[in-house]
Amino acid sequence: MSVFSRFFPQAQVSLVHCEENQVILTAKNDKTAESEKRQIRLIDLAREATPATCNLNPLLFNGHLQTGWTTIKETTEIPIYYKRKIFEQEIPALAGQFAVDFVVPAYPKTTDPEATDEARKYTLPSGLPARTTFFSKEELAALPSNDTKPMLVALHGLTGGSHEVYLRAALAPLVLDETAGWEACVVNGRGCAQMKLSTPLLFNARATWDVRQVIKWLRKTFPNRPLFGIGFSLGANILVNYLGEEGENCLLNAAVICANPWNLDVTNIALRSTWLGAEVYSAHMAVSLVNLFNQHVDELTHHPRLNVDDMKDVKYIHEFDRAVQCALWGYPTEGAYHRDASSTDSLLAIRIPFLAINAEDDPVRDFILYISVKQAIPYDEFKQTPYGVLLTTSWGGHLGWFELGGCRWFTKPAANFLNLIAKTIDLSVTPMPEKDKEGLYGETLANGSIHKPSHPSVFYPVNRKLSMTIDN
């Protein structure tokens, strides 16, 4: 081992994918006949998107330090500005308002009462997040466009919002670089990002209904824009569930999945199995959830199954899920909720190209645990689907990946992947696997349809136990 590598170690970077069957993408080439356009395998595009090395900050030499540094760096200035639009969920059983924040050019601070929601009609008493104001009626009227800019739809992590530093760091290379030409919006979870609840329903780990409605609205409002998705942590789990539920009908062209916990039951058990997992990570996340609950307690008490007294002794995240998520959604136990909301199986139903990025933290994985625990990463499932590539690093923590200087490494492959798909791939050609492959869960055939075997033993990845209406 050289002196340089001892003091500046590299994280190991690996790509996990289906070896015998990969999605084929068609390259843009206006000078080539349609039948002669260059074909690109998804794994080759993912390799091109992935930096050759992953050199992280040697002072943050394990997953704990990488993860903990995210809280210290919360004040990082990434000048992304938003305008907010309020949506009303169209499905009556899931009624409620939620906020979508659109990235816009920088604007001066304003005292306009309409822009700041001075009356607090939609916003919590402490006001809007920094660099965020409401669209005016005139701005909303001018929002629709026939341009062809690529547009990114982002989903944040647990109790977060559009203001989160990790989210802004991922958006920055796309929306702040004028040559990249991207537009973007963030779908905020119910009750998050300073948004008041209008009904006693919080977000949950499989809450795909709001993002589904937004994406349909985007398709109508911007009919010529190719749409892409990116999710972080719990938002990544929701995004994978959405992509799986949509299958071949998905309106997105591609997606990036960052630090997905994947198997929530495994992650929950791992968090509870050690002092560090329970008393540091689980307890810290529970504090955020309890604070969120308290912000909306007046509205949540209207739910007939929710007992506010059950919140008095909540200390860990699984206790919050037991007291709140089980009550709101009718799950008998938090384990049932975690199993039902997990996205491991959903990835098998995805029918668009996607890149997933997870940190394993190999140097210390034998005795510590992570929010996105390694045992929950679905390596085998990625070896079965031609539509996805799993990028893992041996070091990086949970949404950390801090390099010297404070930049986050994961934003590079994420932005590279999205730019390559948007700028070099002919999105009018449906991505197809190299081979027609009949699997128990059904495989996409050459005509783009999902083959469902006639024999009785059929596995459907998105079958769920929670009965709800999804308006497609």
UniProtKB/TrEMBL annotation:
Reactions that this protein is recorded to catalyse: an aliphatic alcohol + acetyl-CoA = an acetyl ester + CoA
N-terminal signal peptide: none
Residues annotated as the enzyme's active site: S233 (charge relay system), D362 (charge relay system), H398 (charge relay system)
Record-annotated AB hydrolase-1 domain positions: 150-364
Record flagged with keyword Hydrolase: yes
A family per Pfam: Abhydrolase_1
Keyword Hydrolase tagged: yes
An example Gene Ontology biological process: medium-chain fatty acid catabolic process
Family designation: Belongs to the AB hydrolase superfamily. AB hydrolase 4 family.
Organism field: Talaromyces marneffei PM1
Role, per record: Displays enzymatic activity both for medium-chain fatty acid (MCFA) ethyl ester synthesis and hydrolysis (esterase activity). MCFA are toxic for yeast and this enzyme could thus be involved in their detoxification by esterification.
The name this protein goes by in its record: alcohol O-acetyltransferase
Stored Gene3D superfamilies: alpha/beta hydrolase
Transmembrane region(s): none
Molecular functions (GO terms): acetylesterase activity; alcohol O-acetyltransferase activity; monoacylglycerol lipase activity
EC identifiers of the protein: 2.3.1.84
